[in-house]
Structures are given as structure tokens and as C-alpha cells.
Specification:
Helices cover about 40% and strands about 20% of the residues. The chain is of the alpha+beta class and about 450 residues long. α9 packs across α11 and α9 packs parallel to α13. It contains 15 helices and 15 strands. The chain is globular, with a radius of gyration of 25 Å. The strands form 5 sheets. The chain has a 4-stranded antiparallel β-sheet with strand order 11-10-13-14, with no helix packed on it. A 3-stranded antiparallel β-sheet has the order 3-4-5, with helices on one face. The protein has a 3-stranded antiparallel β-sheet with strand order 6-8-7, with helices on one face. The protein folds into 3 domains: about 260 residues, Roll (C8orf32 fold), CATH 3.10.620.30; about 80 residues, Carboxypeptidase-like, regulatory domain (Immunoglobulin-like); about 50 residues.
């Protein structure tokens, strides 16, 4: 018996040692990029070095080290200032756990895992320990489900916790969103992406900055399945993927975009590349699109390098820049967009020019920077949105009815939780006991909701 125990111990040591040497990132060139950025960030740490980097003194596996370095290399500087290394390591551990334990996580390519599962941040939310708190609950919920079924189930789980309500606070952390049981589309999509990533499902928040056919905007969620991105409304469960109340409006959009965390990779349609992230254009999944080219020249008709070109959409009584894309050495800028109208505005230093165009009728627009601020004039424009298309077919009545029944059950669960919050009478009695102004106390507790 002792011999068997000794053999088991030796095998365990071999397995652990083998795991610690296994790369999370097999691409050597990408590891070099990460290492360079990591060292640069480390040099910026100053008196935060101990709090941030002492975790590397622990007995970490190669995968833990590479995951941490990836996060450090590309995270916002504010995160390096506000959170410590043990927080980032805890999130890394949960991501690696999902990668190993869940059926979804085991099948994810490493580049997709790095950019759409590992990142702890979705938007500009405050960070919390959501993955650590809810991993077991979410993992149990999707046990024995494939990635498509798991994604739909997690959206039902999210709807049990949160429903849409307009709010001015932007953007709450996932746990705070659960406690308040409400959020805008920004909070709902941040929360849902966090839940999906917790389960090892690649997910991202996508965003239409402005609708083309009406005022307002919207955010929702995309999920990666077997090499393709699918969408769903956050905390708005449907019986199938690629369906939501926004399906038809999105087919008339002029831009739908997302942010890909980390150094540029892959062949996605990138609008702009930054050191820490890339702006990815997802519009072609939803709408009929066209690549619009803009050539910028100076007064002598010489191509202008590094001129700024804004692709502006009229919305909320303003010309809103959907995207700003600098020109290259040939004076060229481009954007894949929908078949509506835009105002193209180009400028460099004090010189500028603009023109209203219909994308469907324009291939290459040439703008000469021969205007300046000294002239005064008026201009009239008519702007037309992309046309309404034939609606997409919906799921069967049977699936829709089953889904509606689940939604009603989830509403009941959420309302039961909301009913558990402290009520006005309890707050008033509490305030009287403490001799505190009752109206102020009631206001504070009402706004705190479940927090």
C-alpha cells in the first residue's frame, strides 16, 4: 500500500510539473509583444510595484504567469493604480478553472480565450469579485450543456437577476447590478458578458453608437461558437440565438462595434488599432454594408498623411462621429458602413472640409482641405437612413411560448428578491430610533435598493 501511495505521489508531482511548464500562449511572437508591454508597464508602477507584482514571487504555473502578464500588459492604467496583484491573480485562476472544467472552455482556441474570456473588464465598470462569487452557481446551471445551450441558459440566469430600467449611474459592476436588480443596456450587457466569460464562453459587448433611423443607441452581447459570432439581448432571453427586439433596427445601422482587449491579432474588421485594444467593426453580421473610401488632399492636391476623417451620423440634433479614422501616406481613410447618408468631415491643423454623401452612391470621396474658420455660411442637408428590409423569420410558436413561460417565472423570482429589500416603514422606524431625519434616510435606502 505504501508503494502504491509513493507511486501516486510521484505521478502527481510529474503531472503538476508538466502543467506548470505548459504555455497558455503558444505563439512565440505574441509572447514577445506581451513581454515588452509588460516590462513597460512594470517600469511605470513606482510605489505600486510591491502591491502589483509580488504575486509573481508565488509558485505560479507558466499559464498563470502568461495570463497575468497579458492582463498587466494591456489593462487600463487606472486598473494598475486601483487594484492589487492578488485581485488579478484570483480572476486569472477563475478563468483558467473555467477553461479546464467547463465543456465550453475546453474547446476554445487560445487567441479567443485570451481576448474574450480571460479579460476581467468589459466596459468602464468598477471591478468586483463576480467570477469568484458566482462561478459555482453558473457552472452548475450549464452542466452537460453545449456552448449554444449554455449561452441561452446563462441569459435566462441573468434575467432572473436583472431587468431593464433606465438609470443615470454608469456603469455598475456586475455584483452591484445583481443587488440592484436593474440596469440600462450598458449594465445588462456588461453583466451578461461577465457571466458568460465566467463559464468559459467567449463573449463581448457590442454597441451601436447611434441608430441611423431614430435617436438613441443600444448595447447587446455577442458569443463566439465554433469560429462564428452570434448575438443575443442581454438579460432579454430568446429561445434562439441571433434574435432580439433590436434585430430589425440593427439591419439598418451604420456602425456596430466592439473592443478587443490586447494587442491586435487575427483578421477581424478593425477600425482602429491601439496599443491596448482594437476597435472591431461587427456591422456586416447585421446589415448590408459597403466599404467607403475617403481621399484627403491639400490645397495643392497632394495626399495628406495623418488627417482625421470623421464619419458623422445625424442623431440627437447633432452630427455624431461614428468613427474617426486617420489617413495613411496616400491620404486614404476607409470605413465599412451601412447604406445610409453620412457627413464626412476631414481636417488637419486649421484646414478642413466636409461633404454629405449617400454611401450607396459613393465609392471614393475626395476632400480637399481648403476651408478654414474665417468663413461663415449656412448649408442645408437631407439625411436618409438605410431602408427597412424584409423581417427575418422568428422561432416557432412552441419555442416562443416555452420561452415566455420561463420569462414569467424569472420575473417572479426577481420580484421576490426585490420584495425582500427593507421597506419604507422599517427605514422610518430605524431613523426614529437613531434620531435621524426620516426623509433623508428613506431617500438613501430607496436609492440603495439591494445594496
Amino acid at each position: 500500500m505504501k508503494k502504491n501511495s509513493s507511486l501516486l505521489f510521484v505521478l502527481t508531482i510529474i503531472l503538476v510539473t508538466g502543467c506548470t511548464g505548459k504555455h497558455l500562449i503558444s505563439n512565440k511572437e505574441y509572447r514577445v509583444v506581451i513581454e515588452k508591454s509588460f516590462i513597460e508597464r512594470k517600469q511605470l508602477a513606482g510605489n505600486r510595484s510591491e502591491a502589483l507584482f509580488s504575486v509573481f514571487d508565488e509558485n505560479l504555473s507558466e499559464q498563470q504567469k502568461e495570463a497575468l502578464k497579458f492582463l498587466y500588459a494591456f489593462m487600463p492604467l487606472s486598473d494598475l493604480a486601483d487594484y492589487n496583484g492578488d485581485f488579478f491573480l484570483a480572476n486569472v485562476n477563475m478563468s483558467l478553472r473555467a477553461k479546464e472544467e467547463t465543456s465550453c472552455g475546453k474547446k476554445i482556441p487560445e487567441d479567443i480565450f485570451l481576448h474574450y474570456v480571460l479579460p476581467y473588464r468589459v466596459n468602464n465598470e468598477n471591478l468586483d469579485s463576480f467570477r469568484i462569487i458566482f462561478y459555482d452557481e453558473i457552472a452548475e446551471r450549464i452542466k452537460n450543456k453545449d456552448i449554444r445551450e449554455a449561452a441561452l441558459e446563462i441569459n435566462h440566469w441573468c434575467h432572473e437577476k436583472v431587468s431593464y430600467q433606465p438609470a443615470d449611474i454608469r456603469t455598475s459592476a456586475p455584483v452591484s447590478t445583481i443587488l440592484s436588480a436593474r440596469g440600462r443596456c450598458g449594465e445588462e450587457s456588461t453583466f451578461t458578458v461577465s457571466a458568460l466569460r465566467t463559464a468559459g464562453i467567449p463573449a463581448r459587448q457590442v454597441y451601436v453608437p447611434r441608430w441611423a433611423h431614430c435617436d438613441d443607441n443600444h448595447a447587446w452581447v455577442e458569443i463566439w461558437i465554433n469560429g462564428e459570432w452570434f448575438y443575443m439581448g442581454a438579460c432579454e432571453p430568446e429561445p434562439v440565438l441571433d434574435r432580439g427586439w433590436f434585430s430589425e433596427p440593427s439591419r439598418r445601422a451604420m456602425l456596430i462595434n466592439t473592443k478587443s482587449f490586447g494587442a491586435p491579432y487575427g483578421n477581424e474588421n478593425v477600425i482602429n488599432r491601439h496599443k491596448e485594444y482594437s476597435e472591431v467593426n461587427s456591422l456586416s453580421k447585421y446589415a448590408v454594408t459597403k466599404k467607403l473610401l475617403v481621399k484627403v488632399i491639400d490645397k495643392n492636391e497632394i495626399p495628406v498623411n495623418n488627417a482625421e476623417v470623421e464619419y458623422q451620423l445625424y442623431n440627437y440634433a447633432e452630427f455624431y462621429p461614428l468613427a474617426t479614422v486617420s489617413t495613411d501616406k496616400e491620404g486614404m481613410s476607409s470605413l465599412e458602413t451601412g447604406l445610409g447618408d453620412l457627413l464626412i468631415w476631414a481636417y488637419k491643423d486649421d484646414d478642413f472640409n466636409y461633404k454629405k454623401i449617400s454611401v450607396a452612391e459613393t465609392d471614393t470621396l475626395v476632400l480637399k482641405l481648403d476651408r478654414n474658420d474665417n468663413e461663415s455660411y449656412t448649408a442645408d442637408f437631407d439625411f436618409i437612413a438605410p431602408v427597412t428590409r424584409t423581417p427575418l423569420p422568428g422561432p416557432s410558436k412552441e419555442l416562443t411560448d416555452q420561452n415566455s413561460k420561463r420569462i414569467n417565472e424569472e420575473n417572479t423570482l426577481r420580484e421576490k428578491y426585490i420584495a425582500s429589500w427593507i421597506n419604507t416603514k422599517e427605514v422610518k422606524d430605524f431613523a426614529i430610533r437613531l434620531r435621524i431625519d426620516t426623509s433623508k434616510m428613506i431617500s438613501v435606502f430607496k436609492r440603495s435598493m439591494g445594496n
